[in-house]
């Protein structure tokens, strides 16, 4: 999940905090106390992701490029840590190509996978809820036996800036406010989230591949 940029008018910032798993079997509005003010479950998604890179140049620069169900996406890190991440996501092929070129120096077309090679390939079953009208809670269960979740907020910059651009400083301040809202939300409903350190899907995937290779 992340920000979408088909053009400057559709830029979206995303802030997320990861959790290891849900602490309850079935997440419901009145399952524990305090209750969610509202909770709506979305249809289950089946995602197939192929991640691409070029000699780790993209990941080292804080960029992750993937094809999700056939559509290209690039997640660009805007700050934070693994567990507490701030991203912008690009979904337009021209924007993705430009960003890749800036990092790798390679200028290839979408038809040539932007000059990148596949590094990971797996499928995910995603359950998603919208809590308190704005927080997206997602639990991902991968086909190689790993699960991880995240609580996410998104902000459409066009709606905030009235069609103009925010400065980098304004974007960082906005994302910090979003992160603080998520932190407060997760503390308030701590009964829903399992304690412990979450492990990212790519980290778990590469660990599993190394184990299979032994």
TrEMBL record:
Monomer. PANTHER family: THIAMINE-TRIPHOSPHATASE (PTHR14586). This is Thiamine-triphosphatase. One of its GO terms (cellular component) is cytoplasm. Residues 12-181 form the CYTH domain. Its EC number is 3.6.1.28. It catalyses: thiamine triphosphate + H2O = thiamine diphosphate + phosphate + H(+). Hydrolase highly specific for thiamine triphosphate (ThTP). Keywords: Acetylation, Cytoplasm, Hydrolase, Magnesium, Metal-binding. SUPFAM superfamilies: CYTH-like phosphatases. GO terms for biological process: thiamine diphosphate metabolic process; thiamine metabolic process. It is found in: Cytoplasm. The keyword Acetylation applies. Belongs to the ThTPase family. It is an enzyme of class 3 (hydrolase). The keyword Magnesium applies. Its cofactor is Mg(2+). One of its GO terms (molecular function) is magnesium ion binding. InterPro entries: CYTH-like_dom_sf, CYTH_domain, THTPA, ThTPase_euk.
């Amino acid at each position: 999940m992340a920000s979408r940029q088909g053009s400057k008018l559709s830029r979206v910032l995303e802030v997320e905090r990861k959790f290891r798993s849900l602490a309850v079997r079935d997440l419901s509005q009145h399952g524990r106390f305090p209750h969610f003010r509202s909770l709506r479950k979305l249809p289950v998604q089946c995602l197939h992701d192929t991640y691409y890179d070029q000699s780790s140049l993209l990941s080292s620069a804080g960029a992750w490029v993937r094809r999700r169900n056939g559509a290209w996406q690039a997640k660009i890190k805007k700050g934070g840590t693994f567990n507490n991440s701030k991203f912008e996501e690009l979904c337009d092929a021209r924007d993705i190509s430009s960003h890749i070129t800036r990092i790798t120096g390679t200028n290839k077309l979408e038809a040539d996978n932007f000059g990148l090679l596949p590094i990971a390939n797996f499928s995910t079953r995603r359950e998603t809820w919208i809590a308190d009208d704005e927080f997206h809670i997602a639990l991902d269960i991968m086909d190689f036996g790993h699960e991880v979740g995240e609580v996410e907020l998104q902000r459409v910059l066009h709606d905030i800036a009235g069609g103009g651009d925010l400065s980098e400083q304004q974007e960082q301040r906005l994302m910090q406010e979003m992160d603080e809202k998520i932190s407060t939300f997760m503390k308030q409903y701590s009964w829903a989230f399992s304690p412990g350190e979450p492990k990212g899907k790519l980290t778990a995937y590469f660990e599993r591949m190394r184990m299979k290779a032994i």
